[in-house]
């Protein structure tokens, strides 16, 4: 039997070979990562189908490229020629929300926002909030160990994953972790899979810890005439309170927003800081205000009102969209130790100057995690080359400051080259041996994260 | 050259072969795990010496058994015949405390309590607090992913490990993670090593995240006439506040303490709950009080005074020592999903009755993590056999309730048999392949966690 006919027997109408439909499955949001042509898109509806699919792929030595909603920005879900894209869109059910145990069990295709909403109805909260949360899947969030704005106080995706069901390359079903909040039985395979970008196993079920709904947040916005001053404010805030959000936008980002939607922002400020606290009372807010002022900043507004606070976040939320009005955008993602934040911001400015590119930066400042947004004219090949150079130089400079080439977006295809530099030979060799322990035939998302 | 002479060249006076001294390195606190005889104890003073030691061990196919302070209770540091015990007592320096980055870099032999003290001096805090914290090493804490009383709010050791330096079996130096708070570059090797109990690599340096010092805690003690009622109170507290401590002692534990040191405890209570909140103000304390009363408990005392609060923890802190007055103690360690806590407590009572043993239970109730303390007459072989049966049955019952055989102590040698049952064949096979990826010759802590 023809391999694709075999696959049709496994997947039924979950098999797609129509090129027009497949076109939508060739890339994620890393638009400049070249997308290959899959021979098919598989849309399994059950763990059993994923198992059969893995066995099929192993038999036919065909690569499987797992895919959530395709919102990744590092090329982790980019199709390779001759692969089968595995879309989890049909495995999209919330299987359980256990209120007493404060956990949820979901299939990988459930949207982050869907779980947030379902938890909210029960007085519970799923914190991780990548900016794509309304449209990205939990499977993708787990595969990339997605972060967001809440991380500064509430941690990243891996802090919420209690257990996984996953299908190995040979079709074996693996279960890791469980429903206990503490568990040290054996190696931490759960966290080894989280962030492995589909290279080790196909995640088919996720058990996620939930929290109580957080109290209402108070909000503060301040501006600074220098990057150093904003860095001092961030440092002081981190040392004195548990901010539930602590973001910075640089001048280029502020100006892009003000041009896109006039909000009356101070377009001469070097940086704008947006912070929230969800501690009871207003003591943390006062403390953050004092920290900004002591650092030489100007506190523009504070509020204890939640909806007013939401308004004050508008500029931050609009930043990417606003910057995208300026041209094609490469979204970079690096993190540095906290004290290096102002220096990293300065270096990003220097890179923009040196490469004659526009770079707007938004940062999860409280985590030292920056997103330099490199803007270029998508129709100008020379401009694109300069932008790519800037994108790579941002990572190199982050490494130089003791940081990482990716804080929350992942390595995918775009950052593979610099990963080698960050990890070094010993770690990379070990990565390959671990990859081999999971996927000896190299069928799972080959060419992503590491060359296997 | 004789292998031991070779080793002497590597280690100088860091090599011990005197049997009287080696006697102290044969076991950890899992006293009933039979300790073999090492051919030597190595006390390396540097990463370079650890490297040379690993190369030596690989050449001579000699097992290395890493050891912190020997405070483990699962037999993870038990010597095997013919091995070399690797004690990190000379690698005991705090290399850096970076106040601005809020992190510490330590050698593995630093005591948890030493780091806590050094951090405290700088207004910082290293939260993980296994009850051994004053005498256990950070290397051991990392190797076992140690927990403690703070976990309910502040997480376990792995939540604080930003990066590691470790020596592989072949002497390769591996660096994982770094100084960034967020980092998704490559597989999470840091967390794969945390909790691997010395079976994957020899940890030579640890980068640990620090927090701000927590605010003063308020404290509450309540008693309950039934385990169910105490379980309801725990559930209500977890749903309504972020308790910074949430412990339970059962009647047997209460009575043991009262016999050891009369504190006026209610020896008829089925359970005593000890809770703290370090949120500002007294709102959480009031909330916890209301939750206890609504569950049918009697609130014995509350205080917003820190030293008075410390007094109120006396019973909890004395529990293990008090129970040890009753006989030889096997310290068990299981965790269950939160709603199963009262049922697990009931089953422990049933196991005590069925095996004619005394079992006192203390529990990190807010995490669903229980320590049933099985007491027996150490001179009575039949009693010991019943105690071991009880110890194993506790784990079996935890598994039956969807829990884990170990919440924070590790698998070591004592829990290996049941690990197979918990993980299943697929996971176990993968554990072996991962072990092989790190340590193909099987020289690192063989026979611990898994049979390799």
UniProtKB/TrEMBL annotation, chains A, B:
The FAD-binding PCMH-type domain covers 34-213
Q: Which UniProt keywords apply?
A: FAD, Flavoprotein, Oxidoreductase
Q: What cofactor is this protein dependent on? A: FAD
- The residue range of the signal peptide is none
Cite the Pfam families for this sequence. FAD-oxidase_C, FAD_binding_4
- Provide the protein name: FAD-linked oxidase C-terminal domain-containing protein
